[in-house]
């Protein structure tokens, strides 16, 4: 399915711009620079579907991508978070937009929360996990950039991340370790996304 038709649909800077709630959605979240754009491109087999290296200020919108012909899944690329230099009102706007989307979206089947494998779960990641737990949106934790660390360090991050995930009510069991660079974990992530969307 992901190898077939994938199209950018639209950007929604506010809830009134959301596409009609007719297709199962999978949302992707992660701190800026976690590798979210690269991962969306890897999952969809596209070179530049999602724009990489988002800059603060340009990112306060939800970007939707349609997957499949006939249309089967809609991806929602949520704005990155955790810019060190982000102004307070921008953080506030991000929180409102994301919270409203998460709480009001019945077609949202799962969120994918990206964690940089070199850093593990950070306080900004806990904030989005808190929001997802609060909105009762089930989410899958995914490690990114695993080509950048040694196997022993990856094992430690996997263990710590799983331990934290187990304590979270809406976290889906398991963890997918990926690299957009080598393609590791990408088929597993595709399968998990489709299973969640079609369930
Ligand atoms: P975003 O801000 O979350 O969308 O992150 P990007 O996809 O723009 O990636 C941020 C930086 O990390 C870019 O320089 C990417 O080339 C790099 N990057 C992303 N994914 C990987 C990966 O799996 N492996 C490596 N080595 N670098 C990656």
From TrEMBL:
Residues 22-199 form the EngB-type G domain. The keyword Oxidoreductase does not apply. CDD domains: YihA_EngB (cd01876). Pfam families: MMR_HSR1. PROSITE patterns: G_ENGB. Keywords: Cell cycle, Cell division, GTP-binding, Magnesium, Metal-binding, Nucleotide-binding, Septation. The keyword Mitochondrion does not apply. InterPro entries: G_ENGB_dom, GTP-bd, GTP-bd_ribosome_bio_YsxC, P-loop_NTPase. Its cofactor is Mg(2+). Belongs to the TRAFAC class TrmE-Era-EngA-EngB-Septin-like GTPase superfamily. EngB GTPase family. Necessary for normal cell division and for the maintenance of normal septation. PANTHER family: ENGB-TYPE G DOMAIN-CONTAINING PROTEIN (PTHR11649:SF13), MSS1/TRME-RELATED GTP-BINDING PROTEIN (PTHR11649). This is Probable GTP-binding protein EngB. It comes from Sphingomonas arvum.
């Amino acid at each position: 399915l992901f190898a077939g038709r994938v199209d950018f649909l639209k950007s929604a800077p506010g809830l009134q711009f959301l596409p009609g709630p007719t297709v199962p959605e999978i949302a992707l979240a992660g701190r800026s620079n976690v590798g979210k754009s690269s991962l969306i491109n890897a999952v969809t087999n596209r070179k530049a579907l999602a724009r990489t290296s988002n800059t603060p200020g340009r990112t306060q919108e939800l970007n939707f991508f349609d997957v499949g012909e006939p249309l089967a899944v809609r991806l929602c690329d949520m704005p990155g978070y955790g810019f060190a230099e982000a102004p307070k009102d921008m953080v506030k706007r991000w929180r409102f937009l994301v919270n409203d989307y998460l709480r009001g979206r019945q077609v949202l089947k799962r969120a994918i929360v990206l964690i940089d494998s070199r850093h593990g779960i950070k306080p900004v990641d806990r904030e989005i996990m808190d929001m997802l737990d609060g909105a009762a949106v089930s989410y899958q934790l995914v490690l990114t950039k695993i080509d950048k660390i040694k196997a022993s360090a990856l094992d430690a991050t996997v263990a710590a991340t799983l331990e934290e995930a187990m304590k979270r009510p809406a976290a889906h069991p398991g963890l997918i370790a990926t690299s957009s660079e080598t393609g590791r974990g990408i088929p597993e992530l595709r399968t998990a996304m489709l299973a969640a969307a079609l369930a």
